[in-house]
Amino acid sequence: MSQTVNIAVDAMGGDHAPGIVIDGCALSLERNPHARFLLFGDEAKMAPHLARHDALAASAEIHHTPDAVPMDAKPAQAVRQGRKSSMAMAITAVKVKRAEAVISAGSTGALMAMSKIQLRTFPGVARPAIAAIWPTVSGEALVLDVGANVDSDIKQLVDFAILGEAFAHVVLHRQRPRVGLLNVGSEDVKGNEAVKAVDALLRAADLPIDYVGYIEGDDISAGEVDVAVTDGFTGNIALKTAEGTAKLAAHYLRGALTSSPLAKLGALLASGGLRALRDRMDPRKANGGVFLGLNGLVVKSHGGTDALGFAAALDLAIDLAGSDFGEQITTALEAVHDKVTAADEALKAEKRAKKEAAAQ
Amino acid sequence: MSQTVNIAVDAMGGDHAPGIVIDGCALSLERNPHARFLLFGDEAKMAPHLARHDALAASAEIHHTPDAVPMDAKPAQAVRQGRKSSMAMAITAVKVKRAEAVISAGSTGALMAMSKIQLRTFPGVARPAIAAIWPTVSGEALVLDVGANVDSDIKQLVDFAILGEAFAHVVLHRQRPRVGLLNVGSEDVKGNEAVKAVDALLRAADLPIDYVGYIEGDDISAGEVDVAVTDGFTGNIALKTAEGTAKLAAHYLRGALTSSPLAKLGALLASGGLRALRDRMDPRKANGGVFLGLNGLVVKSHGGTDALGFAAALDLAIDLAGSDFGEQITTALEAVHDKVTAADEALKAEKRAKKEAAAQ
To answer: Which of B279, B184, B173 is nearest to B226 (CA)?
Structure first.
């Protein structure tokens, strides 16, 4: 861990940039003295914030980029007009191997589009996914895709399973991660056509992964799997719904612990445990979505987060940058790619044969 | 409220039937003395449970049905083989107007298939939806569909908006319910094609409902809308994910309040408030999905619930059965049906015209 890790930071991305970005870097630097930040942004706007953090100012590399990608920029527009933006230049730093990872709290769509163009996807991977780390009763699980793709096809969902499995090895340190496919609850209406086809392909390919089959929404936080695979539309809504429910629970808890003088006294006595609870329920602690499937490490922070949340996403980026994450995923993909293709062709041939038999 | 309300109960549906069903009826009867239960099930199996509840045994009407639909029955199979089952006979009671509502904790797919055949959908409604009541910071919201359909088309999602709006009037007593369409988070990748088309149709139809546009997963529990519309696949996963998160929060809270002797003492002092919290977070209290779009009231209880949960679903069925729910929905649907059809045709014509213009 003592080897220097270089992180390219889009200092102008997010609702409260560059203030919370710089503050977040300072926070993370305290915890990760081996990290070095390459700050891409408007020098004049960054200066007053940097002035408050001596250690960061001394170690960071400042790259002045006058342009920034607006939060509401359409991806195509950002790609065309943002070539010299802080976001684009930070991605370039990873492309040219000056940094091991790039982080941004800017527009998700713009970051994904620019990353795809500059870093390109792994051979055989059509579209990257965003993976989120999800708290469970027994630790953490990985959920993907949580929003990179609003329409995912069957082959892509199989890719997500493989990418997620490799990622769980590296990030969650699981020897043999259990991979599940998110589906609806009732026993008798088992999923839509796409989910059924993904399940069939994952089984037919006989991959060297521990595929456990269908799971339901409540199985994620129950710790039933290490990796939950779903399309970006469903995954994003599930993630946001879980965040909303956690906020609701916190709201109820505040109400319960201020409902009477006795309850308030009780809350005071239990404050140590409750502080730990607040920490665990704090969505900022789980901040940081990782783009999977690219030749380079890209971490997306929530756009509306604060310094604490941005620092948590930075910590994740530093951890990953210091691991052999990229190589492991490449190896895993290479090992299974041919199997998936063969299984896919076999399933299609079977379908054709059935159709022809039915037509006769 | 003093007028008798007749509820047809499938006493054999659910993982722990008929025990928890009978116990649940007894619980609900205490709270709703104007309710009368028509119990459909195996008389010999119900008898020992009824023997423990004098008031229920005295007021209930027992209908002996030797057959029951297995929990894992496929819908088509249940329809074919279950004509004389407790589930089918309970639905018939609503069809022939002997009961104002039917309730079952049995297989969702079987209950939906049988209900559709016996009760039929409202004119103009292609497929019924299941609506769930969702706790929010400001009260309750309605989410639909939470699992009746795994593939919903555009027209069906518009129907769900109208059905949900009418339901929110009656159940949540909102004068002008705000209706939102569940979508993904990022500003720049606004939803898949289906969601965009539903949004366009809802806007073009200029319906007499307060359609607020897109919402995200966390907007539901934040109380941003009264009705959240989504397809059954996404809705079911969102619902289960929220339940899982609530369980996780409760798990963390238990840990926090037993982490030290001081914390335990604090929990004891705050026990009044914490009990109220547990009640609010208890998923059993929100038990009961309502089938919307049928000529008759059908309530589905969780299959794995206990007597407390089944009683909560019964309370909901009794409330609805005593309201003019059915008429209100019929009126609402009639008022908007022509508008939706006209808008749909106009949008399609516009698309055709654009295509033709582009082809020239």
So the answer is: B173
Strand partners, A215: A182
Count of CB atoms within 10 A of residue B122's CB?
Answer: 20
HSE value, Cβ hemisphere, 13 Å, CA-based, for A214 = 18
Would the CB atoms of B108 and A188 count as touching at under 8 Å? yes
- How far CA B295 is from CA of A50, A114, B9, B125, B327, in Å, comes to 67, 53, 18, 11, 10
- Residues of A with Cβ-Cβ distance to B217 under 8 angstroms: 236-244
Looking at chain A, the whole-number percentage of residues with pLDDT higher than 90 is 49
Read off the pLDDT band of A54 (50, 70, 90).
very high
Instruction: Kindly report the nearest CA distance between residue B181 and chain A, in angstroms.
Output: 12
What is A1-120+294-323's CATH number? 3.40.718.10
Q: Does A1 have pLDDT greater than 60?
A: no
- Give the closest-approach CA distance of A59 to chain B in angstroms: 33
> Which of B189, B216, B305 to mutate: most A Cβ within 10 Å?
B189
A251 and B219 in contact by Cβ < 8 A?
Answer: no
- Residue range(s) of every CATH 3.40.718.10 domain in chain B: 1-120+294-323, 127-291+324-360
Listed in order, the ranges of chain A carrying CATH 3.40.718.10 are 1-120+294-323, 131-286+325-360
Residue B106 has pLDDT above 80, yes or no: yes
* pLDDT value for B1: 47
Domain B127-291+324-360 of CATH type 3.40.718.10: yes
Given A189, A241, A262, which is nearest B242 (Cβ)?
A: A241
This complex has an ipTM of 0.84
Name the CA dihedral angle for B267, B269, B275, B278, rounded to a multiple of 10 degrees.
-20
A194 CB near a chain B CB, below 8 Å? no
Q: From A181, which residue of chain B is nearest by alpha-carbon distance?
A: B237
Alpha helices in A257-321 (DSSP H): 261-269, 271-281, 307-321
B16-32 per-position pLDDT tens digit: 999 999 999 999 999 99
* Cα A58 to Cα A41: distance, rounded to the nearest angstrom: 17
Our CA angle for A259, A262, A265, nearest 5°, is: 105
Q: Return all residues near A52 (Cβ < 8 A) that are at least 6 apart.
A: A22, A23, A26
What is the spatial distance between Cα B255 and Cα B262, in angstroms, rounded to a whole number? 13
Task: Answer whether B131's CB lies under 8 Å from B143's CB.
Answer: yes
User: Cβ contact (<8 Å) for B273 and A255?
Assistant: yes
Q: By the CB < 8 Å criterion, does B286 face chain A?
A: no
Q: Which residues in chain A touch residue B73, judged by CB atoms under 8 angstroms apart?
A: 188
Phi, psi of A299 (to 5 degrees): -115, 130
Model pLDDT for residues B196-232, shown as the tens digit of each residue: 889 988 888 888 889 999 999 999 999 999 999 999 9
Q: Is the pLDDT of residue A262 over 60?
A: yes
The residue in chain B having the minimum alpha-carbon distance to the alpha carbon of residue A268 is: B266
Tell me which residue in A192, A232, A248 faces B137 most closely, judged by beta carbons. Answer: A248
The Cα A159–Cα A122 span in angstroms is: 11
Q: d(Cα A114, Cα A83) in Å, to the nearest integer? A: 9
Residue of A240, A71, A72 lying closest to A146 (CA atoms): A240
